[in-house]
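User: Show me a protein chain along with its predicted structure.
Assistant: Here is one chain, sequence first, then structure tokens.
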Amino acid sequence: MPQCLVSSPASRDRITSVHRREIEVSSYLDATRIRNLAASLELRPSKGRGQNFLFDANTVRRIVSLAGVTSDDTVLEIGPGLGSLTVGLLHTGAGVVAVEIESALAERLPVTMGELAPARVSNLTVLHEDALKMGPVDSNPTMLVANLPYNISVPVILHVLATCPTITHGLVMVQLEVADRLAAPPGSKVYGVPSAKLAWYASAARVGTVPPTVFWPAPNVDSGLVRFVRRDPPPGADRESTFALIDAAFSQRRKMLRSVLTSTYGPAVRPALEQAGIAPEARGETLSIEDFARLAGALT
């Protein structure tokens, strides 16, 4: 006589949970899918464009969680590539505006998202353009979330924050060394131009590290996750004057400001330092963005 097997509620819950996890995993891009997609597009990852494609679903979910993406957000994603992070963003119910410079990748992205997130693909807008040349985005994005190539990461972040004032917060994945520089406070050994200029727009902190093993091809270094929150710019001077001063101050690290700035601003440097309340022997590495703005105002 055949044995009748009756599953308990607990076992049914376990089966449902396993099935749910299988569905979740299947809706992301794993290493095999990444390689197959690249092959179908005859794409060879370019070191020049920093193309290292993320294939780990857990890392994607971690990035989305740390960024704090909700269904109320419109996320600007720069360089979506094959869509590894894009699908994680869409799963939150958020709107996603993906800016991709390569035509083949821009054309393929909606197709891939239609396969992985069919119920959410209508939330996706793809812009085929250069992120460093784009103007304001019509959909008024509320946040930036992106895996950025190391060679253009800082210019892209600064350009986006300058041209998209509706972005209030976000998270970027960059080369670990760049992440440390972006989040460095005044006085830190790695505090410099990227740190000071980002501070004009936002407060920033490194909130995680990502190993090379979750990318294809694997980069040579770890990546860092930097979360930022926009704030009002400091009083004292406009952005252009302040950024020009920052560039001049860091043109010769570890030199006193009265010396390094004189070649650019002439004899006005000493009285401007006094007016701004900054010691003439101070170095650029010790000045906050508020100090730079105050000094720029005194120099203009």
